[in-house]
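Tokens in:
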């Protein structure tokens, strides 16, 4: 099998020595070429070219941003070419997608699991989410957020550019500061889905393709615990933004069962084919932990069996 290994050299939890170990392990079993990303969206370009260059498998090492780029590159494979399989290895601070797949969170263990699956010819197809708007046409692997969490992602990006290291603690502290300042206390969102009554005056909306939404260290954060790669999209949206209600919901999100399907202060929809969100004023928007800018409308849809995973 011929494989392309796309490596983000800025991955926060790996070193050049550990990356060399992974390359050596994979190269012993596959015909392997290695490409390091050099700029934003480089991983997408490399993955998009992979099928035309004869690769049967694309392996990535990086965080959820690298995964998102590779997935969007693979999904742009021309129809007349066979789309390569994908094997993501964890190299970021959260690695939500890899962990949601049930794969090891440690790179060497994850590499071993991937190689075992490749030897056995094991693969699985998973669904993805797709974002369509006037500005975008992109796939997401686990979540899209409008409002509070996107504000947090935007601020963390700014802090990283100034030298801060991304970590669960940085995200949590940034989220708390944003909440205390009242950055998200604007009920501007309106949400629609086929077969549903529209809901309006919402403070924050999250659409997921799987669970969890993210991790607080080793603890999964589950606002939509029924969300699965094999189903449609799930929605969680806040109808209240009080300190007491938000604290209660965060406690539920961190519990083993996650947030129940119904309760005060929020709306929860399960297994939707499409969800549209509009805002009276531009609000921050993110997919897979990447801030895309401020938006007034986004259309999200479920794409079943979009991607073949090795591992």
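Residues out:
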């Amino acid at each position: 099998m011929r494989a392309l290994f796309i490596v983000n050299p800025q991955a926060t939890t790996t070193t050049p020595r550990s990356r060399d170990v992974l390359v050596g392990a994979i190269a012993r079993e596959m015909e392997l070429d290695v490409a390091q990303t050099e700029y934003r969206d480089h991983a997408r370009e490399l993955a998009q070219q992979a099928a035309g260059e004869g690769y049967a498998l694309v392996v990535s090492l990086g965080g959820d941003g690298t995964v998102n780029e590779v997935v969007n590159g693979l999904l742009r494979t021309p129809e007349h070419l066979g789309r390569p399989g994908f094997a993501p290895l964890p190299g970021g601070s959260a690695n939500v997608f890899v962990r949601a797949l049930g794969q090891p969170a440690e790179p060497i263990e994850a590499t071993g699991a991937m190689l075992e699956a490749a030897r056995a010819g094991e693969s699985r197809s998973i669904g993805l989410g797709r974002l369509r708007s006037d500005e975008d046409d992109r796939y997401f692997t686990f979540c899209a957020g409008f409002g509070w969490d996107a504000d947090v992602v935007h601020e963390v990006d700014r802090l990283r550019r100034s030298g801060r290291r991304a970590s669960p603690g940085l995200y949590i502290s940034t989220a708390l500061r944003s909440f205390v300042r009242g950055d998200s206390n604007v009920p501007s969102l309106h949400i629609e889905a086929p077969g549903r009554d529209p809901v309006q005056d919402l403070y924050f909306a999250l659409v997921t393709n799987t669970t969890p939404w993210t991790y607080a260290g080793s603890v999964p954060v589950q606002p939509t615990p029924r969300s699965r790669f094999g189903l449609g999209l799930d929605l969680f949206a806040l109808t209240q933004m009080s300190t007491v209600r938000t604290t209660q919901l965060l406690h539920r999100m961190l519990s083993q069962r996650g947030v129940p399907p119904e309760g005060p202060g929020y709306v929860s929809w399960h297994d939707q084919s499409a969800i549209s969100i509009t805002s009276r004023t531009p609000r921050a928007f993110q997919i897979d932990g990447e801030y895309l800018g401020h938006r007034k409308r986004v259309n999200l849809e479920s794409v079943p069996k979009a991607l073949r995973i090795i591992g």
